[in-house]
Amino acid sequence: MELPNAALVLVVAAAAMLSVAVAYDPLDPNGNITIKWDVLSWTPDGYVATVTINNFQTYRQIMAPGWTVGWTWAKREVIWSMVGAQATEQGDCSKFKANLPHSCKRTPAVVDLLPGVPYNQQIANCCRGGVVSAYGQDPSGAVSSFQVSVGQAGTTNRTVKVPKNFTLLGPGPGYTCGPAKVVPSTVFLTADHRRKTQALMTWNVTCTYSQHLASKYPTCCVSFSSFYNDTIVPCARCACGCEHKTCARSERDSKRLMSASGKSARPVSALRGHVNRQSAAPLLQCTTHMCPVRVHWHVKLNYHDYWRAKVTVTNFNYRTNYTGWTLVAQHPNLDNITEVFSFDYKPVVSYGSINDTALFYGMKFFNDQLVEAGPYGNVQSEVLMRKDASTFTFRQGWAFPRKIYFNGDECRMPPPDSYPYLPNSAPASLVSSASVVVAVAFLVLLMA
Ligand SMILES: *[C@@H]1O[C@H](CO)[C@@H](O)[C@H](O)[C@H]1NC(C)=O
Ligand SMILES: *[C@@H]1O[C@H](CO)[C@@H](O)[C@H](O)[C@H]1NC(C)=O
Ligand SMILES: *[C@@H]1O[C@H](CO)[C@@H](O)[C@H](O)[C@H]1NC(C)=O
Ligand SMILES: *[C@@H]1O[C@H](CO)[C@@H](O)[C@H](O)[C@H]1NC(C)=O
Ligand SMILES: *[C@@H]1O[C@H](CO)[C@@H](O)[C@H](O)[C@H]1NC(C)=O
Ligand SMILES: *[C@@H]1O[C@H](CO)[C@@H](O)[C@H](O)[C@H]1NC(C)=O
Ligand SMILES: *[C@@H]1O[C@H](CO)[C@@H](O)[C@H](O)[C@H]1NC(C)=O
Ligand SMILES: *[C@@H]1O[C@H](CO)[C@@H](O)[C@H](O)[C@H]1NC(C)=O
């Protein structure tokens, strides 16, 4: 029998230790979200600014119910009006007589508008319900903007005070934002590219994601199987935490639980506050792993120069359709992908030459939505890789991925010592010649 690969165990353990509490993702070291304010004009008591949220993360999108951006005003500023977004609360505007501001909160929370608002309430890159694509998947969808008219503020670049304590919620916590920094003013090119204009003042905020801040447990798990061993290695038990979780035993049970809680999975109004976020809490199908998502990697076929893995992503969450989902896999042979069936694919090149990470996502209008748990709640693909003659082997779990991320969160791997063994593939010295003959015959049969 084969022993688990000690080196792999070490790598997995080291990776687990390194990723604790550090907002650093080794597969996406430069990934961040910036919030940029460009002051475009001064008003009698303040300014009008365009706020642009850029998602520079390679594979972590902001999915429904979208972003919420918050900050603390430095002085007594108010928001007179907004275009393309809205503050979730007006707050106490009782000091104002005739014209009431849009929001008087000292710590406003702003959300995007939902699609379909009238054109006069829109600006470019607004009104997508706060959904922002990952940059590596769709650069043109990785930006979101709104305009804000601020009163009781400074009216020159020396008297304006930049807001403090920026916060960014994706569908949940996880992001930490640095201080706003005044940066060189943004230069804009007019639509006909014949004239440049410039913001009167610009400040930037950088926010980074930490999975450990987002949730105590992983949100997905990985299971394995192979053509050369009947064992299916399931997701680790309670991979996503089992405490205080209710789950549904069947689809009918899920409907009962959803109507009992009286909450809809969909936002009921354009004003999406924390109440609606709560209802987006997962309602899971009962499993031993209790994860909303499982990624199964099956080593399917062995050819002379190629091999093939089948990847299946299954949704166990009755409350969520994962629209625009992403899957990231790290495996040393992913630098030699020959063909990917029914998923789109891009290499993730994080450090120069190392090219062992791939970003997979669904094809538009075909499988870019991983629908809620149930008979249709899965997507699958096959990946054909050219064997790298110097490293290729089925031994010691080599054919299984080193890391898997779903929607930007790292998934829990099965315990390293549980990977399917290649039958009778122990070190040559321990294997009788008879069993070598049997094993070779077996492989030849499989390759045929
Ligand atoms: C944010 O991401 C961009 C794009 O990857 C990068 O150029 C920039 O240095 C990052 N900023 C910080 C503060 O890490
Ligand atoms: C910003 O947040 C920090 C810590 O949460 C707090 O100590 C500080 O008072 C806040 N600043 C303002 C202006 O609210
Ligand atoms: C403020 O505006 C003055 C001109 O009015 C300009 O010279 C200066 O660079 C600006 N400062 C900043 C930080 O934008
Ligand atoms: C500010 O953010 C923009 C992206 O919105 C980025 O292009 C620019 O480099 C940033 N500036 C600084 C000084 O970080
Ligand atoms: C998921 O999408 C399908 C149609 O694409 C819809 O019927 C279903 O209600 C959606 N489920 C959730 C939880 O939003
Ligand atoms: C990475 O691998 C892909 C094929 O999987 C290839 O298209 C791409 O050019 C490679 N990039 C580098 C920098 O080697
Ligand atoms: C796999 O790709 C690497 C570069 O990405 C290349 O050097 C190597 O020759 C390839 N191996 C095979 C077997 O094609
Ligand atoms: C298949 O792999 C499992 C480990 O996951 C191992 O216990 C079992 O002995 C293997 N079966 C064969 C036929 O080698």
From TrEMBL:
GO biological process, one term: cellulose microfibril organization
Pfam families, per database record: COB_C, COBRA
Signal peptide: 1-23
Keywords, in A-Z order: Glycoprotein, Membrane, Signal, Transmembrane, Transmembrane helix
Family, per entry: Belongs to the COBRA family.
Regions crossing the membrane: 426-446
PANTHER family registered for this protein in UniProt: COBRA-LIKE PROTEIN 4, PROTEIN COBRA
Top-rank lineage group of the source organism: Eukaryota
GO cellular component: plasma membrane
Domain COBRA C-terminal: 219-420
Record-given protein name: COBRA-like protein
